[in-house]
Amino acid sequence: MSKLRVGLLFGGRSVEHEVSLASASSIHQALDPARYEITLIAVDREGRWRLGNPGLPPEATLRGEVVNLPAAPGERTLVSSGPGPLEPASQLDVIFPIVHGRGGEDGSLQGLLELADVPYVGSGVLGSALQMDKETAKRLLQAAGLPVLPWVLIRPVDLRRNAEAAAELALREIGLPLFVKPANQGSSVGISRVSKPEELLPAVREAARYDSKIICERGVDAREIEVALLGIDPLEASLPGEIRTRHEFYDYEAKYVDEATELLVPAPLDPEQTRRVQSLAIRAMQVLEGEGLGRADFLLECETGEFFVNEVNSLPGFTDVSMYPRLWEASGLAYPALLDRLIELALERHRTRSEFETVYRRS
Ligand SMILES: Nc1ncnc2c1ncn2[C@@H]1O[C@H](COP(=O)(O)OP(=O)(O)O)[C@@H](O)[C@H]1O
Ligand SMILES: [Mg+2]
Question: First CA to last CA across the chain, in angstroms?
Answer without folding.
Answer: 39
